[in-house]
Amino acid sequence: MRVLLTNDDGIDSPGLAAVEGALSVEHEVWVVAPDAERSGQSHAIQMRGPVKLTRKGNRRFACSGTPADCVFLAFRGSLVPRFDVVVSGINTGPNLGTDLVYSGTAAAARQASLLGIPGVALSLDSLTPPWNFAPGAAFAAENLKNWVETWSEGTFLNVNFPAQPLFPLQAEQTQPSRRRYYDQVVEFEAPGGEVWCWVKGLILDDKIPEGTDWDCVRRGRVAYSVIVSQPVTVEAPAGRQIK
Prior knowledge:
alpha/beta; Stationary-phase Survival Protein Sure Homolog, Chain: A; nine-stranded mixed β-sheet; two-stranded antiparallel sheet; globular
């Protein structure tokens, strides 16, 4: 298969390098990834001004835009041949449950789905080094063909690898968890009157719901969730009217 590989940690990320090496054994891999970290940029796209693509080697391009830009430009542009699947990651840090709202890693897989192509987001449940990407990269390479063949239009696959996996790797289909953060804003008023703000976030949850992606990775297993990428219509409760 021809694979488009991207991420939100940047083209020099060790997680991207690990999965690139694993997938290249059996697949033709093209890389279009941000030229620097774009974590937390969700599904932002560049609507004003140009986006620059810089060659970084054979089948590799660094992009000045966002992860969603990377996928869109590779799909609509002329530099990358038509690909069969988009793989995004492996992200340094988990993308569990409600984290998907903010994740650039997930946005790249979602953008693939919106273009009618299978998309897979890969993340590792570890925010600090040393990162062990090898088991996840090997697992992705082993299962990619099956993921593509069982893909459902209008969805993408979100996969999280445990920081301390059980061997052999075991995977469970899970429901996305609800992740609540205690967000603290630290403010500093400069002499000129400007107020500089830093956001410090701490996870508030002290109980991890059973059966969720969060619970799964903490038990040392691979969590995968099928995420709907298209807007869906939900019927309003009886008697409720919008005025």
